[in-house]
Amino acid sequence: MLKYRLSPLLFIVISFIQLNNCSSPGKEEIENFQGIYILKDSIDYHVKTKMQELKIPGASLAIINKGKIVHHQTYGYANLEEKIKVTKKTIFEGASISKSIFSFFVMKYVEEGRLDLDKPLFEYLAYPDIAHDERYKAITARMVLSHRSGFPNWRENEPDKKLKIKFEPGTDFEYSGEGYQYLAMVLKEMDGGNWADLESKFQNKVAKPLNMEHTVFIPTEYMEQNKAEP
């Protein structure tokens, strides 16, 4: 999402498995959201089957009940070519799921009075890449967060590979990573003008308070050594 975004590879399998009620709970069973006990082996079999069907090379599954991890299992490979298996340390890219975390981060600036959701972003930071279209001066943080900026998802997906505004900002909806990129640059400008400073602010405002020890927007050495490869 920031300047150093990774290639979009994240496989999330959310499976609601409904099986017959077991006679009594045991250590190899977990309770689902309907109060039914399910064998852990059944869950693992289901995930492995779906991974084969969908050609997913590697995955990590954690089930949390009442604030506690009741089942954690890893499957397949973090690097298929080199046959490096997924482990409990393997890091998977959050891809666009990170937009929710980034939005929470943005709201910290709003709470502090440093960012106005309805103030045009160009008043914080001009954007040369779209300066040829005056309509960009109407784009606000609120529009970006709700995908109403008029920007495409990514400019590289456009035929001419150029950033453009596809409709009057605020009047329609189109999912956009470019909008979040612009908003990230605005926050970067507020906090010293470099990505490392912004990452530090994210760690202090969001990651550390929530005990997200290995969550980063800018790659670190630890992440590079432990991430699942595209």
Considering the chains and any ligands shown, give keywords for the structure:
230 residues, alpha+beta, Beta-lactamase, 2 domains, three-stranded antiparallel β-sheet, 12% strand
Commentary on this structure:
The protein is α+β, with helices and mostly antiparallel strands and 230 residues long. The protein has two domains: 1-91 and 219-230, no CATH class; 96-213, 3-Layer(aba) Sandwich (Beta-lactamase), CATH 3.40.710. The protein is 29% helix and 12% strand. The chain contains six helices and five strands. It has helices spanning 40-54, 98-111, 141-145, 177-190, 195-207, 221-226; strands at 29-31, 37-39, 58-65, 68-79, 84-85. The radius of gyration is 21 Å and the shape is elongated.
Describe what is shown at a glance.
This protein has six helices and five strands. The protein is an alpha+beta fold. The protein has a three-stranded antiparallel β-sheet. It has a two-stranded antiparallel ribbon with strand order 1-2.
